[in-house]
Amino acid sequence: MIVESSLTETRSIVRAARQHGRSVGCIPTMGALHQGHVSLIEIARQQCDFVVVTIFVNPTQFGPNEDFTQYPRTLAADLEMCHAAGADLIFTPPVTTMYAGSAQTIVRVTKLAQVLEGAHRPGHFDGVSTVVAKLLNVTEPGRAYFGQKDFQQQLIVRQMCVDLDLPVEIITCPIIREADGLAMSSRNRYLSVVERKQASQLFQTLKLAENLAENSALPPPEIARQMLDYLKSVDGIDVQYAVIADALTLELLTDRSNSAVALLAVKVGSTRLIDNQILRFR
Ligand code: PAF
Q1: 18 CB-near residues (< 8 Å, 6+ apart)
Q2: pLDDT above 90 covers what percent of the chain?
Q3: End of a domain among 152, 173, 194?
Q4: Which residues have any ligand 1 atom within 6 Å of their CB?
Q5: Whose CA is nearest to atom 6 of ligand 1?
Q6: pLDDT in tens, 260-275
Q7: Predicted pLDDT of residue 258
Q8: Number of structural domains, the chain?
Q9: Judgement on whether residues 230 and 207 belong to the same structural domain of the protein
Q10: Who's near 6: CB < 8 A, 6+ residues apart?
């Protein structure tokens, strides 16, 4: 496994692999890797000949009051996990490589990025789409892998690739959960023991939504109201949103449509967590 911080070196290593007829898969990450990331690398390993993992804590996707400086940086452990999962190349650029002081370009997806996470975290998705465009431009993969946990992010990245004619297939991989259902996230390590227990109620809320979708005739706004009531009843959870939206457009659903996703965002103490679940109406 090669570990590289130079952008031009990374580009030429990947190009050489492609020139040797190897298909390239890329997994963009911010490090602090967990089993969710490992599953992305393993899926890429099965589908591609050459697997690139990027590790870059991207400053432009953090708001001024968010956790950029505290975000966990665990490079040695990350590299071990990448190696064990079968990655071929790790690109770990410094901030100055990704953002020259003179940079003036932002990649902005409009409608999809304005709601939900976009409304609660102004500028967040500009940072995400800009850095993902740059990382895909450096690594030129045939496929790129994202977790379903960041549901809105994968939709935005798909839209960006279509709009910018980037020749990359976006693969969205299933959420990996802890035994009690909590979705794996690098931010889970911020949780105290008590908060960790409270956080497991996110999964219970999604199970409630799934159950109501499959076993009742309730319309989506009523299911969303029950999700909200459930979350509000849990001590220590501050709800930011709990909605049922169209799984392609993220417009809030009023009818029991075929393409639906329950999405929620909460704060547990000072830690912000998101989760989601695709719904199938009976
Ligand atoms: O999901 C993440 O870890 C980040 O948003 C990403 C896609 C690596 C961009 O910095």
Answers
A1: 24, 50, 140
A2: 99
A3: 173
A4: 28-30, 58, 61, 128, 131-132, 150, 153
A5: 29
A6: 999 999 999 999 999 9
A7: 80
A8: 2
A9: yes
A10: 93, 97
